[in-house]
Amino acid sequence: MAQTQRIGSRIRERRVMRGLKQADLAQRAGISASYLNLIEHNRRRIGGKTLVRIAEELGVAPALLSEGAEATLVQALREAAGRALAGRSEQAAALDRAEEFAGRFPGWAQLLADLARQRSELETTVTALTDRLGHDPQLAASLHEVISTVTAIRSTASILADTKSLEPEWQARFHRNLNEDSQRLAQGAQSLVRYLEGAPDAGAEITSPQDEVQAFLEANAFHFPGLEGAGGGARIDAVLARSEHLQSDAARGLARVVLERYVRDARRLPMGEMEAALEAHGMVPEALAEALGVGLAQLFRRLAMLPAEVAGPVGLAICDGTGALLMRKPALGFAMPRSAAACALWPLYDLLAQPGAALRMRLRQGDVRVLALAVSEEAAPARFDRPALTRPHMLLLPDPGGEAAAGFRAREVGMSCQVCPLADCDARREPSILGGGF
């Protein structure tokens, strides 16, 4: 029986494993129980939105139902081999024999796939921790406080141990200092542990106005329904006042700039028009920009600020002329640094040398693959005393498919040099802790 003809059997197996009744799954997926019964007995073909809805209810990827566990396992092995053996002569042989290996030794193949996944997760955690260690002033201050307190305790203890006789008054004072410093050390250590435990969460422990704005945007999923429609600008103050993430005046000022731009983009591209255009043209930015009569940069911002149920998973990065990230919306597993030190291989930075270009390329960051579209927007025109100021925009969309289908190879990129595992990279500006392998 062909792979596509076994979809129904896999659906039934997954449903039984989750303890769901056929009628319950059918109701959740928006189809009739009789139709689901025909699907499960491989008497009706299934695909598209129906397959996606059923996969969501069963808590599995659609590919696991349409292609089976073996195909998913083979793909995982190919990705692991491609990453581990990149540039080596053994790579082609390993890729060609991945399917044979999975078929003959499924247990070992699954173990290798699991180890590759765990390695990727560990690298992500190390990336987040290292980014904080290298760029976080609050962490540096916390470590300095702990070290200073330890030094004070050691000094006081040394005096008590080395001085044979102390007046009761001085002895009591030193004991009191020991007690107070010990309490301070305990509190500092507890705070530091809580901080490090929250490392993978980009919104934890805000340390700067930019971090406050980032947490504010993430808490609202980068979408502000109250600012849509007429009069959105008049409601900016209310949106800012309600946020618990904007603690400083500087952060509120930066957030106001973002929201004012949001209102301008929403006024030019109303929600209804965006939904209609997406329905007519799909997620094809060139066609959308032409149909709506706007520039690509403004369209990129608007797409990134739409709800996920309207535009799907969309990521966005905007930088200024120095390369500093002005805005970042991570998506699709593509990691972006908290600091301005992003990977120089991002197409975003190609536009600093060719601001009039429009770039389209596939990117590979570890096991993550995305489609990146990059254009520049003129922020201020050229004058006799300065060049034109541009702001490159990079939109991230789901990878359209394999390299052969897309017609071009993926460019391997990192997040930042400090935590990049890419070897022999001409764009590297500092050593990586992952350079020798993880």
3D architecture notes:
- The chain is α+β, with helices and mostly antiparallel strands and 438 residues long.
- It has 20 helices and six strands.
- The chain has a six-stranded mixed beta sheet.
- A hairpin with a 2-residue loop joins strand 3 and strand 4.
- The longest helix is centred in the N-terminal third of the chain and has 30 residues.
- The protein starts with 6 loop residues before the first helix and ends in a 26-residue tail after the last strand.
- About 2% of the residues have low confidence.
Write a concise synopsis of the structure shown.
By secondary structure, the chain is an alpha+beta fold. It contains 20 helices and 6 strands.
Radius of gyration: 27 Å
DSSP strand content: 5-15%
**In this structure, how is the largest beta sheet organized?**
6 strands, mixed
Strand order of the largest sheet: 2-1-5-4-3-6
Helix content: 40-55%
Residue windows where pLDDT falls under 50 for at least 5 positions: 199-206
How many β-strand runs? 6
Structural class: alpha+beta
Tally of DSSP helical segments = 20
Morphology: globular
Oligomeric form of this entry? single chain
| Elements, N to C (H/E) | HHHHHHHHHHHHHHHHHHEEHEEEHE
Question: Which terms summarize this structure?
Answer:
alpha+beta, 438 residues, 54% helix, six-stranded mixed sheet, 20 helices
Topology:
Elements (H helix, E strand, L loop, with lengths): L6 H11 L4 H8 L3 H8 L7 H11 L3 H5 L1 H17 L5 H7 L1 H7 L1 H30 L1 H26 L5 H30 L11 H11 L16 H7 L6 H20 L2 H11 L3 H8 L3 H9 L3 H4 L3 E5 L5 E5 L17 H4 L8 E7 L2 E13 L8 E10 L4 H4 L3 E3 L26
Parallel strand pairs: 3-6
Antiparallel strand pairs: 1-2, 1-5, 3-4, 4-5
